[in-house]
Each structure stands twice: as C-alpha cells, then as structure tokens.
Specification:
Order of helices and strands: EHEHEHEHHEHEEEEHEHEHH
Radius of gyration: 20 Å
Strand content: 15-25%
Largest sheet: 4 strands, antiparallel
Number of helices: 10
Length: 284
C-alpha cells in the first residue's frame, strides 16, 4: 500500500514570516488537502545564534491567521539532536565524513583558486592522523564534511542517483532528474560545538516524519541533489520533490528576511484581511 501523501512547511524562527513564506505554506497546505493527505509544520531551529522565541510564536500566530491547520505535536529540530547525531555517527563509522579545519575564508579562497574559479565546489580530504590529533588537542574548531570521493566509492558512482521533480527547478527542470551532488562539493553536515547543519537535519526529519512530497521554493532545488545522496547513504526513503516559483515584489526581487520584506504581522497591523492575502497569492 502506498504511503499517504505527506508534506510539510518548515520555517526557521530567525525572523518574521512574509508573503513568500505565506505562498509556500499555502502551496503545501493546498497540495495536502487536494490529495486528502497530511500537512505538517516543522520548526527548523538548529541555528542557536539566530533563533528567537518571539519568532517561533509568530510563526504559529501567522499561519493560524492565514487559516492553516497542521498536525500536532510540532517537531522542533532542537529537541531531536540525538536523531541527527545518530545519522552522523553512522556516516563517521563508514568513513563518509571527515574533519575539516579550514575557516570559511580559507574554503572560499580554495574555491576561487580552483580551475573553474567560483563555479568549482569545495573538495577536501582528512588531515594526516598526526596533524589531525595535534589540531584536536589544541581545541581547534572544525566542521564535519561529507566526502564526495568516499560517497562515490561507496555507491559505485552517482550514475544511479536521481529524484522525481513534479514542479520545476529554477531553469524549468521537471520529471526524472539525475542527481548531481558534486555541484555542492563536500558540504558541511555538522560543526564542532555548534551542532548539525541543514542538509543532514532536514533529510533525517523528512524520513522520520514520513514526508512523501517535499514542497518548497525553487531556490532550494540544488539542495535536493545533496539530500538525495544522503538518503542513499543512510538507506532512507526517497520523497518526491515539487519545487514552486518564488514570489517577487513590484521590484522583481524575491521576498526575503534580509531585505526587510513586509511581514505578515505588518500586513495585519495595517488592516489586511487573510482572505484578501490568500486571494492575492492565488488561493481561494
């Protein structure tokens, strides 16, 4: 029997929601209702330096104002670090990750000096054991990076990896998409003293929550390539992807927290009604 259609909206409590978030949440919610499926809300709060309780509270308030409902309890990533560490431990045991002691600046410089310049993704390697032990003894910070070379050897290449795209990527990609995890290079999966990173947490979450359809903006299309690789390495189920267009303002720029896009709270404060916003976004 096929698994019941299950999708999610997974915001980070690092700012207030705006129209772009509303569009994404409404898109996923409508898809779940059309399929008589499940709609989940997940709070992706692994960024301890930027998350705020008031932002999380506002997420619930804003989505309820939009007229959405979701299953409870809501999964908060900060409450499930053991799940992510178990996945990381498995990757470590199989030699699929390595400690990288380079700073972000050093990584950027390495990418810029690669044969294809800034288009080249970072690829590294473990330090010699004695040098690594010295760095660890000195308390040097490091990141756990996924080793593409080790992953390629484990799987016998990436030729058998693909994912189904029911929506469209940024360049109109649709249908059966060959996975190209090399586009992301040796991505960071966790950092010392900081915790797990996005790719590992979201891949584990989707599997544990039974997500069958990942519905999100096409700005995250490239993330599917890396996440598909992690699914294969961790023997996790493969969801269907349905990336949607990004909502843009009158200036043609997509709505973003960093650009101080008008928030849903601000819309409410100036008297905008939820039904009017839903209609504006193409719903109802």
């Amino acid at each position: 029997m096929a698994a019941r259609f299950t999708t999610r909206f997974a915001p980070s409590p690092t700012g207030f929601l705006h129209r772009g978030h509303a569009f994404s949440a409404l898109t996923a919610h409508a898809a779940a209702r059309a399929a008589d499926g499940r709609f989940l809300l997940r709070i992706e709060d692994i960024d301890a330096t930027r998350r705020r309780p008031e932002f999380e509270a506002a997420i619930f308030e804003d989505l309820a104002w939009l007229g959405l409902d979701w299953e409870t309890p809501v999964r908060r990533q900060s409450e499930h670090m053991d799940d992510y560490m178990a996945a990381l431990d498995r990757l470590q045991a199989e030699g699929l990750v390595y400690r990288c002691f380079r700073t972000r600046r050093e990584v950027a410089e390495a990418i810029a000096s690669a044969p294809h310049g800034a288009m080249e993704a970072f690829a590294g390697a473990p330090l010699p054991p004695d040098e690594e032990a010295e760095r660890l003894a000195a308390g040097a910070p490091f990141a756990w990076r996924l080793s593409l070379s080790a992953a390629r050897a484990r799987l016998g290449g990436f030729g058998g990896l693909s994912f189904v795209e029911e929506g469209a990527g940024p360049d109109g990609e649709h249908g059966l998409i060959p996975a190209r995890p090399e586009l992301g290079g040796d991505v960071v999966l966790a950092r010392k003293d900081v915790g797990v990173a996005y790719h590992l947490a979201v891949t584990v979450d989707d599997a544990l929550q039974g997500v069958t359809h990942v519905i999100r903006g096409c700005d995250l299309f490239e993330a599917a390539h890396v996440q598909r690789l992690l699914q294969a390495l961790l023997d996790l189920p493969e969801p269907v992807y349905r990336h949607h267009r990004l909502l843009t303002g009158p200036d043609g720029k997509r709505f973003a927290k960093r650009d101080r896009a008008e928030t849903l709270r601000e819309l409410r404060a100036r008297g905008v009604q939820p039904r009017a916003l839903r209609r504006e976004l193409g719903f109802d």
